[in-house]
Each structure stands twice: as structure tokens, then as C-alpha cells.
Write a structure and sequence with these properties.
about 375 residues; mainly alpha; rod-shaped
Length: about 375
């Protein structure tokens, strides 16, 4: 004869319920999870499921009455008990949503997790889209909050956690209107943290995956501005070119947007900045006694007759033509016409991967 286990599942569950009232809330939450998971996974007969539906339905009506009477705490606990004890019932999804709504009025960060339980466990709930919307609203309020944490330090939620929340929204409902907006907000968090590479990557995802949306237009403009910040800090004209390309992408995709006018007006300023970098690089090589290397950059400058550096670049070219050729420049051209220098003669140059021209590290950025 097969022996019965010493502790039945019913005995363990009943014992846990009896002990709950005497344990700290953290432990109680842990045990609640174990009990609820067991109830959700167990196989129920049709009669048992019908009985649970009836009981859970009665409790749901009771919770709504409590809520209407202003007894929010009692209603919250009743909603929670439905989800915990009758997770397979028809009332469970509604109870989970109502429980999350009450938690939102008490502690928004915790409510975000409760909405996620509904999204994960009850995807067919009529409240699914509303739960996504509430999650987005909670995340936005946390991102825009000026409140500080304990003793004035820290924020209501860490930036990395906020990015996780936005990513969860986009992953849970990738075809909803909130997916591109969530990814856009995640990119803005990276931007605020001066994480330009991460920000551009996240924003580019919005542009690529959700074209023709307002979020995509906003993301493309943010990319343009981030490219501008990088260009301002770099000696490389390539960074200016990258900003121009990002700006033209925005203009071509959003010609009627008011920001397109701003970008068109910025083009002359960006070109002037790039030409100034070329002139400064030429001046650097000339000062180092490398006139033929300087000539390469001055020639690029004089291709822009409207530049304020045009006249001086022409003058410097004329002076180089009149002067003696430096010994290190006599042997012909190297990369872009610049003759190769012995290692001990080479100036300190930038070596970042995006550089095409050899640019001096000590030149002002």
C-alpha cells in the first residue's frame, strides 16, 4: 500500500495561513507568493473552478462596495485576497487591476509592479491597455519628478531602474502607442546622464522601428542635438558631418515641422565650425614647422569663400609658397598629401576611430 506523505499540501497551506498574522510583512509577502503560485498551478476540476468563480465573484462585489463606501484599505485587502486565493477565477484579473489602482494612490513605484502582474498573468484582461498606459504615466511622473530621496540625496527612482521600466513597457506591448514613447523617454534619460552613445542608440531604435510617429520625429531631433554636442567637443570635421546628416534626415522626414527651419538655419553655423577646425589644424602644422602638411588643410579652407577664415588661409598658402620647404616635407605626400614623419617628429594626434584627418590633441575643442 502506498504511504501518504506526512505533510499534505492542504496542511502546509493551512499552517502558513494561520502563521501569516504573526510574521513580519516581508516574510508574509514571500509566503503569499508561494501560496498563490501553488493555487495558480494546481489542476482544478470543472466543479471546483465553478465554485471558486462563485466565491471570488462574491468577494469582488464586496470589495467594490467597500471601495464605494470609502473603506479603501479594506477594499485593497479584499482585492488582494482574491488574486492570492483564486488566481484562476474570472474575478482575478479585475481584482488585480483594482488592487494596482489603489496601490498607485499609495505608492506608485509598487503599483507599476502590480500592473505588470496583470500584464503578465492576464493578457486577455480588458484592462490590459489601460495597465500599459498607467505604467507609462507612472514612469513619466517619476522621470519628471523634482523630489529628492532620503536626506535630500538621490531621486525617487534611479535612472537605471527607470530605463528598465520603460523597456518593460515597450517589450510588453511593442505595438502600442506607448512603446515608441517609452523608448524615447529611455533615450532622454541616457542623454541627461551624458551617455551620448547609449542615448543615440536608443533613439535610433525609435526612428528605425516606429517611423512616421511623433516619437520618431522627436527622437531624430534629439539625435541631431546629441551629434551637435559631440561635434562641439571634437576637433574632427567628421563629427560636424554626422550632425549635418542627422539634421538632413530630420528635415527630409519632417519637412513641415517647425524644427526643420531651425536645422536649416543651423547649417551655415555648422559649416563654419567645421572650416574653423580645418584652419586651426593647418595653423597647428605650420607652427610645428610642417608647411606642406599645413597646406593640405588651408586648401580645404579656401574651398569655402564665404568663410571668415578664407582670406587668412589664402594668405598663409601664399606665405608657404614663398618660403622654404621644410626638410620633413620634401619627400612627397603621405596620407591626404601629408608626408610621413619620423616617430620623434610627429605631433600628438587624436586617434579616435572616427578621425579621418590627423588632428592635434592640443588644439582647442
Amino acid at each position: 500500500m502506498k504511504k501518504r506523505p506526512f505533510f499534505s499540501a492542504y496542511f502546509v497551506t493551512t499552517l502558513a495561513v494561520i502563521l501569516l498574522s504573526g510574521i513580519p510583512s516581508e516574510s508574509r509577502a514571500f509566503l503569499d507568493g508561494l501560496i498563490g503560485q501553488g493555487k495558480k498551478d494546481e489542476v482544478l476540476s470543472g466543479d471546483e473552478l465553478s465554485r471558486q468563480d462563485s466565491t471570488a465573484g462574491a468577494l469582488l462585489a464586496k470589495a467594490k462596495q467597500q471601495l464605494a463606501a470609502g473603506r479603501q484599505r479594506q477594499a485593497r485587502d479584499t482585492f488582494r485576497s482574491i488574486v492570492k486565493n483564486y488566481p484562476r477565477s474570472e474575478a482575478a484579473a479585475e481584482a488585480q487591476f483594482q488592487f494596482a489602482r489603489i496601490r498607485e494612490s499609495e505608492e506608485p513605484k509598487k503599483a507599476f509592479d502590480e500592473y505588470q502582474k496583470l500584464i503578465h498573468n492576464y493578457r486577455n484582461s480588458p484592462h490590459f491597455n489601460q495597465a500599459i498606459e498607467r505604467q507609462f504615466t507612472i514612469a513619466e511622473s517619476l522621470r519628471e519628478s523634482d523630489k529628492k530621496g532620503f536626506l535630500g540625496f538621490g531621486a525617487p527612482v534611479q535612472p537605471s531602474k527607470l530605463i528598465e521600466m520603460y523597456t518593460l513597457i515597450s517589450d510588453s506591448a511593442p505595438y502600442s502607442e506607448y512603446a515608441p514613447r517609452a523608448l524615447l523617454s529611455a533615450g532622454l534619460i541616457h542623454k541627461k546622464a551624458s551617455q551620448s552613445q547609449e542615448a543615440i542608440a536608443k533613439l535610433q531604435t525609435v526612428v528605425d522601428q516606429y517611423p512616421d510617429t511623433q516619437a520618431a520625429a522627436d527622437a531624430q531631433f534629439e539625435i541631431y542635438e546629441l551629434r551637435g554636442i559631440k561635434a562641439e567637443r571634437s576637433n574632427s570635421p567628421n563629427q560636424d558631418r554626422a550632425q549635418v546628416e542627422a539634421g538632413m534626415d530630420f528635415v527630409n522626414q519632417n519637412p513641415e515641422d517647425a524644427r526643420a527651419v531651425q536645422i536649416r538655419n543651423d547649417m551655415d553655423r555648422i559649416e563654419e565650425r567645421a572650416v574653423e577646425k580645418l584652419f586651426n589644424t593647418g595653423k597647428f602644422y605650420e607652427d610645428k614647422g610642417k608647411p606642406q602638411s599645413a597646406r593640405v588643410y588651408y586648401r580645404e579652407v579656401v574651398k569655402h569663400p564665404d568663410s571668415p577664415f578664407y582670406a587668412e588661409a589664402q594668405s598663409r598658402l601664399a606665405a608657404i609658397d614663398r618660403g622654404p620647404v621644410a626638410s620633413s616635407d620634401r619627400d612627397g605626400g603621405g596620407f591626404l598629401g601629408i608626408s610621413p614623419l619620423r616617430k620623434e617628429e610627429q605631433p600628438a594626434l587624436r586617434t579616435t576611430p572616427d578621425e579621418v584627418l590627423p588632428l592635434p590633441a592640443e588644439s582647442p575643442e
